[in-house]
Amino acid sequence: MRDSLYIALDFSSKDLALQFLDEHQLDRVPVKVGMQLFYREGPSLIKELKQRGHSIFLDLKLHDIPNTVYAAMKSLGKLEVDMVNVHAAGGVEMMKAACEGLRDGAEGKAPKLLAVTQLTSTDSEMLKDELLIDAPIDQVIDSYAMMSKKTGIDGVVCSVHEVKRIKERCGSDFLTLTPGIRLKGDRANDQKRVATPQLAKQQGTNYLVIGRSVTQADNPKEAYNQALKEWEDEYSQTIK
Ligand SMILES: O=c1ccn([C@@H]2O[C@H](COP(=O)(O)O)[C@@H](O)[C@H]2O)c(=O)[nH]1
Fold first, then answer.
1. Is 82 annotated as a binding residue?
2. ipTM of this predicted complex?
3. Above 80 in pLDDT, residue 11?
4. Ligand 1: distance of its center to the CA of 28 in Å?
5. By CB atoms within 10 Å of each CB, which of 20, 90, 188, 209 scores lowest?
6. Which atom of ligand 1 is nearest to the CA of 159?
7. Which residues on neighbouring strands pair with residue 155, listed in sequence order?
8. Cβ atoms within 10 A of the Cβ of 99, count?
9. Which residues are designated catalytic?
10. Percent with pLDDT over 70 in the chain
């Protein structure tokens, strides 16, 4: 299970990200590289993290016309990361193009491809008032998940609160990756649909992403191990 708890490396440079991992002895933990770090450091960072033995979720959330997404995914396919993603809001043709691009670009096994349903920083009010989507948020998320599944995508990014419903509708082997994870008592910050690792486990999600609850903790390793312990329940395999 420790392979499924990703730390969000939201740092401004490779040096800071690697210093964080080294200082807190977070050797070989799964990591999520997002836009902030990848736009600055590019593929060389991915290469270095792979050499250090980290599983990598490259969280770039592609959202563009199908032709552009096809070409971008073809490039990402060559990086040999474990997972990449797109926004489901890009639609069916775009998601199909993403699947194809990734397959065409990958030299060996293609990374898993996930679709973001609604960002965990979105709530019902924002959906209605800013995005002018009148359907209830749960209905929108379920519908985006079912649409994603039809395109051949492996799973979705959603909050813990939607996992059970998505699995009922799309099947238990349709993957869910859930950010918005907070240890008990931590601030939600800009996140709206948050949950603890314990609830994530109860709801049956496949992967967790945890950022600030670990990276900004007084003792990041202790915080990571606490999340891992809640997530793994009785096994509690901590990183020594
Ligand atoms: O819906 C989404 C999709 C991606 N994220 C990313 O996950 C981390 C969460 O960081 P925290 O510090 O734990 O809030 C961050 O990198 C986001 O870009 C998300 O939060 N929600």
1. no
2. 0.99
3. yes
4. 20
5. 188
6. 1
7. 114, 175
8. 19
9. 59, 61, 64
10. 96
CA-based nearest residue to 131, from 43, 85, 212, 141:
141
Q: How confident is the model at residue 234 (pLDDT cuts 50, 70, 90)?
A: very low
Tell whether ligand 1 has an atom less than 6 A from the beta carbon of residue 30: no
62 appears as a binding residue in the annotation: yes
Supply the DSSP string of 22-38, one letter for each residue.
HHTT-TT--EEEEHHHH
Q: Please tell me if the CB atom of residue 178 comes closer than 6 angstroms to any atom of ligand 1.
A: no
Give 214-223 pLDDT, tens digit per residue: 999 999 999 9
Q: What is the DSSP letter of 110?
A: P
Residues with Cβ within 8 Å of 56's Cβ and at least 6 positions away in sequence, in order, are 30, 31, 32, 33, 46, 49, 50, 81, 82, 83
Secondary structure of residue 208 in the 3-state scheme:
strand
**Per-residue tokens: 184:** 């008990």
- The backbone region for 138, taken as left when phi is positive above 0, alpha when psi lies in -120 to 50, beta otherwise, is alpha
120 lines ligand 1 (CB under 6 A): yes
Q: What is the pLDDT of residues 142-159, one digit of tens each?
A: 999 999 999 999 999 999
Q: Position 23: which residue type? A: E
* Residue 65: C-alpha distances to residues 34, 59, 68 (Å): 21, 18, 6
Query: Closest Cα partner for 175 from 157, 193, 159, 161?
Result: 157
Residue 117 · residue 88 · CB < 8 Å: yes
- Domains of the chain plus CATH, in order, are 5-232 (3.20.20.70)
